[in-house]
Amino acid sequence: MGIAENIYNLRKEIPPHVRLVAVSKTMPAEAIMEAYQAGQKAFGENRVQEILAKKPLLPPDIEWHHIGHLQTNKIKSLIPHTHLIQGVDSDKLLAEISRESSRSGIASHVLLQVKIAREETKFGLNPDDLHHLVHQVLLGTYPGVVLRGLMGMASFTSDDEIVRQEFEWLSRLFNGIRNQFGNSFPHFTELSMGMSGDYRLAIAAGSTLVRIGSLIFGERRISH
Ligand SMILES: *Cc1c(COP(=O)(O)O)cnc(C)c1O
Questions:
Q1: What pLDDT does 56 receive?
Q2: What residues of the chain score a pLDDT lower than 50?
Q3: 152 touches ligand 1 (CB under 6 Å)
Q4: Is the pTM of this model over 0.70?
Q5: 214 lines ligand 1 (CB under 6 A)
Q6: I need a surface site. Which of 32, 62, 65, 200 has the fewest CB within 10 A?
């Protein structure tokens, strides 16, 4: 099936309150253009260099999301070009994004990445560090960022029950923060979870944003 058809099919299935971010890492600009022509505006990339290379070749109203781990030395070049940084997983990274954004006179929108998978390899904050960071954001420690919500990646397993539990756990954490700080946190509205293999479970657990790559563009030949 073609890229446009894949997007139409996903849109039919995804409820209107859930945003689709098409993960285009490793894919050429032509493939992104095909998705764009099918009405897709939000794209996710995990390498700053790729965003910088593809952006000038494509329509200016595309929203570029940075997904996954971000290196500190790439922040400065990324922030003028990104709509949402998904996956801030340390206070150091948040501090650096805030500092560079303030310097550039912009506010960067970010999601904090929480470690929900049992696998050791996945990045993310534990709940204590998360709550600490949320408090610091509320105290005004990071004036250059707008905290938009949370992001998480479930275990890579065919056991749906494990994945469902991980998503539900993150969803409770997200709602707990919203209930506790809702009034002082009007922009804290996004819960990014769900990929090609598990987006249905993620949506059932309350995701507002799914990040889907291979189901739209096909399998990636280069893995990153
Ligand atoms: C690659 C990637 C995705 C998309 O993965 P698919 O399985 O191809 O849908 C989603 N989120 C992150 C953080 C990724 O790195």
A1: 97
A2: none
A3: no
A4: yes
A5: yes
A6: 200
Ligand 1 atom 11: the closest Cα is on which residue? Answer: 211
Residue of 25, 40, 195 with the most ligand 1 atoms within 8 Å of its CB, for mutation: 195
**CB–CB of 138/177 below 8 Å?**
no
The reported pLDDT for the residue numbered 182 is 79
Nearest CA to ligand 1 atom 7: 196
Count of alpha carbons within 13 Å of 178, Cβ hemisphere only?
15
Query: Token pair for residue 128?
Result: 């204590």
* pLDDT reported for residue 224: 55
- CA-CA distances (angstroms) from residue 39 to 6, 11, 43, 86, 220? 12, 10, 12, 22, 22
Q: Which residue of 23, 47, 123 sits with most ligand 1 atoms within 8 Å of its CB, as the best mutation to test the pocket?
A: 23
Helix 160-181 to helix 127-138 angle (10° resolution) is 30
142 alpha carbon to ligand 1 midpoint, in Å? 28
Q: What is the pLDDT of residue 221?
A: 78
Phi-psi region of 152 (alpha: psi -120 to 50; beta: other; left: phi over 0): beta
> Which residues are CB-contacts of 191 (< 8 A; sequence separation ≥ 6)?
149, 150, 151, 170, 171, 174, 206, 207, 208, 209
Longest dimension (CA), the chain: 50
Cα separation, 7 vs 125, in Å, equals 32
Query: Given the CA of residue 197, which atom of ligand 1 is nearest to it?
Result: 7
